[in-house]
Amino acid sequence: MPEGHTIHRLAADCLERFAGWPVRAASPQGKFSDGAALLDGQVMSGADAHGKHLFLGFEAVGWVHIHLGLYGKVGFGDGPAPPPVGAVRLRLAGGLGGDDHYADLRGPTTCELITTAEKQAVHDRLGDDPLRPADDGEAAWRRVSRSRTSVAALLMDQKVIAGVGNVYRAEVLFRHGIDPYRAGRDLTRAEWDAVWADLVALMREGVRNNRIDTVRPEHTPEAMGRPPRVDDHGGEVYVYRRARQPCHICGGEVRTADLAARNLFWCPDCQRR
């Protein structure tokens, strides 16, 4: 499932291409035909992201609420849009010349037209988002510091922290030497502040580069003289999807285990209890 940096990047990309211009909207697949009919010809007034939720604003009709889920994707193109390929839930086309850009949404878990009040209800049920400037991690800390649940599970709970997924969860815990099975209430305030600040920095880089890189400069392939990572998720990481491989820092074996139906990755030597 795409993590929060991807959704914030999509919001920025939609703003860049469509904001301030009328858009043509269609649902070639047919599952969003009524909503697309209401959007067609309307001006995109804004875009917003909170965690893994994307919102596209149209003042006259409300917000398109999108959650990509496991299989959803958004693809962009320039120039007149070609005939749609596959099950396109929503196509938007527009820009300065009327057809300068297009975007195709495929396979989302959610694609619905909602009111501003309904949008706020989504925000209200989500936790702090490291990429939202108004969020400072305080509300998340209050929940984490009182919880017996493992910090690894808490980081993936979107009601606690919105936008963090399996990659950022594994990597930020490794970077701070925190055992993933420690209870949230056993974290110190200093540890939490460091984790939050790191998430803010890493995820901002994720938005900028449109990929997740978490290794520090001294641990890049060039600095260490090691081969670059080859993985369809891309990016240089310490432990994510590196089970049974040697840790870049200590040389010990990276472990994996199931936690709350997701694969957990960590180095037991670098992340001691």
Protein model, in words:
The chain has helices spanning 4-18, 33-39, 116-125, 138-144, 151-156, 166-175, 189-209, 221-224; strands at 23-26, 46-50, 53-58, 62-67, 73-78, 88-94, 101-106, 110-114, 255-259, 262-266. With 273 residues, it is an alpha+beta fold. A hairpin with a 3-residue loop joins strand 3 and strand 4 (62-67). The longest helix is centred in the last third of the chain and has 21 residues, at 189-209. The protein starts with a helix and ends in a 7-residue tail after the last strand. 41% of the residues are buried.
Gist of the model:
By secondary structure, the chain is an alpha+beta fold.
Helices, strands, pairings?
Blueprint: H1 4-18, E1 23-26, H2 33-39, E2 46-50, E3 53-58, E4 62-67, E5 73-78, E6 88-94, E7 101-106, E8 110-114, H3 116-125, H4 138-144, H5 151-156, H6 166-175, H7 189-209, H8 221-224, E9 255-259, E10 262-266
Antiparallel strand pairs: 1-6, 2-3, 3-4, 4-8, 5-7, 6-7, 9-10
Helix pairs in contact: 1-7
